[in-house]
Amino acid sequence: MLPIHRILTSTARPAVSRAMRTSRLPISSLNTTFAKAFTTSQISRQEAFRIKPSVAPGTSTGKDTPLLFQPFNVKDLTIANRLVVAPMCMYSSKDGYMTDFHLVHLGSFAINGAGLVLAEATAVDPRGRISPADTGIWSDNHIPAIKRVADFVHSQGSKFGIQLAHAGRKASVNAPYNSEAFSETEYWRDDVVGPSGGPESRWDEKHAVPRALTVSEIQDVVKAFGAAAARAAKAGADTVEIQSVHGYLIHQFLSPVSNQRTDQYGGSLENRARLMLEVIKEVRANFPAEKPIFMRISGSDCVEHLDIPSWDIEQTVQVSKWAKEAGVDVLHLSSAGNTPLQKVAYAPGYQVHYAERVRKEVPGLPVIAVGSITGGKQAQEILESGKADLIAGARTFLKQPSFVLEAARELGVEVAYAPQYSLAKTL
Ligand SMILES: Cc1cc2nc3c(=O)[nH]c(=O)nc-3n(C[C@H](O)[C@H](O)[C@H](O)COP(=O)(O)O)c2cc1C
């Protein structure tokens, strides 16, 4: 084999570029000559599938593998390591469709060894989008674009899940960075819904005044989650994650901060949790039985400094037990997002204690810890000390898409790389 410097500086060049260098034809006509036999989709399929890793990137190939790099099994799903890309809204869609951006963004995490890639909060109902730029899964038309991403993630040996979401009273706001791309008619500010309605129920001045969902509309929401789960399965998702967190619709029902209903969906914990449990059952009924269901839930509204009824870890523990009975296989613990009055104590691993508490009190329900987990040793310590079963990262992966490979390096674990990236091991 050639030494590394020879490989990197080799004069051998592909035939196409040699021909292009020597030909007198203009480049544009050469491009046509060499590419005319392929459509764009044929080319992308070739690139995606021609070179498949024989072992999924991020899989331990050595001995004495620490927990972080041991596989994780739940139902029919086996994840090569314990590192999960957390769902992240990218506000890069129109009419709900995943785009090339999603393929590259999510695909790169798979190339770089993430065990499981969870796609962003994806609306089960157009009214449930945070902004007009959110991804959606309310129509069968959305399936092919999602499948394209799922297929690519699978081609790298990684697993693909999608977060099913409804933004409730936090819907119909500007996308953070491309609001100019949307006209006023693409928002639905007069039809923003939540558990409770009126000016006192709105999130803040920038959000629309919501109206309370009727009981029959709540049933429609439940069905929309189920239909979305069925579409996710058709798109090849290995799991779906129910979004019950960060102050979006299901969390709005759970928390007394946002739920002032007096019917069977408000008041007692049983009533506030009713929507969540109905959604879990509907998703379970519409998603293949052998595939696991994940759910993301808040450990707290983070308003302990105020003397008001709110969502806390005690209620989280109770509903986690109910969620398990209703069909949730993995619980993902985050916090906050349900009121602007919150005070979040940001620090490394600031939400791990929620995962730890649920793991201790709900035996048999694996949990994911997330939130400022940025190093391999930090992640391994969380697992080793029994605080969580899996580790997720959002900004962690944005900052360092190869976080998994770097975590392996930090822990001295030998892992597989994508064949195309294998030279990176030599640095
Ligand atoms: C850009 C961005 C988008 C996010 N979008 C979502 C989302 O769609 N669904 C969700 O449950 N959480 C979302 N979150 C929260 C993350 O999944 C994660 O819980 C949080 O950022 C903490 O992890 P980190 O410290 O690694 O960023 C988002 C976070 C970021 C940074």
From TrEMBL:
GO terms for MF: FMN binding; NADP binding; NADPH dehydrogenase activity
InterPro entries assigned to the protein according to its UniProt record, in alphabetical order: Aldolase_TIM, OxRdtase_FMN_N, YqjM-like
Keyword annotations of the record: Flavoprotein, FMN, NADP, Oxidoreductase
Pfam annotation, one family: Oxidored_FMN
Needed cofactors: FMN
Domain NADH:flavin oxidoreductase/NADH oxidase N-terminal: 68-410
CDD domains in alphabetical order: OYE_YqiM_FMN (cd02932)
Coiled coil segments of this chain: none
Protein name from the UniProt record: NADH:flavin oxidoreductase/NADH oxidase N-terminal domain-containing protein
Species of provenance: Entomortierella chlamydospora
